Amino acid sequence: MSRKQQNYLSIVVGLLGLFIAIGVKTFLHPCVHADGSEAMCAGAGQLIFYLGIALALLGSGLTWTKGVLRVIFAIVLLILSVLLILAPGTLAPVCGMAEMTCRLVTQPAARVTGIVAAILSLIVGIGAIRNR
């Protein structure tokens, strides 16, 4: 895999991270109670936000790296993607009721985004190791 293809894939991972970070603050947000207070899943939303920002920064940063640092960035992207998959429900609690927004919207969006980002990060990592 050429460096240019790796750069495209890492930019896509960065855009996925930016999508989930913006989404969790806007249209993919966790539950909010009727009185405006935060639900127990607010911590999951914050964790997803920070992981999304980290994915966005490292995904864009990978385009400027070379050599061993490129492989390390790809491995860290893979780890962050796995953490994004595990964030809602495993690393941070979400609401117990199946009808809540965090269960219907936030958790599936984070998991799908994390799975796609993990696959792309793995491809970039394998390409970087082969080019090394």
Number of helices: 4
Shape by Cα distribution: elongated
- The ordered H/E elements are HHHH
Mean pLDDT: 92
Count the domains: 1
Q: Segments where pLDDT lies below 50 for 5+ residues?
A: none
Supply database-style keywords.
132 residues, mainly alpha, 4 helices, elongated
Explain what the structure shows.
The protein is an all-alpha fold and 132 residues long. It has one domain. The chain contains four helices and no strands. The mean pLDDT is 92.
Please specify the SSE layout and strand pairing.
Blueprint: H1 3-25, H2 42-61, H3 68-86, H4 101-131
Summarize the structure.
By secondary structure, the protein is an all-alpha fold. The protein is 70% helix and 0% strand. The chain is elongated, with a radius of gyration of 16 Å.
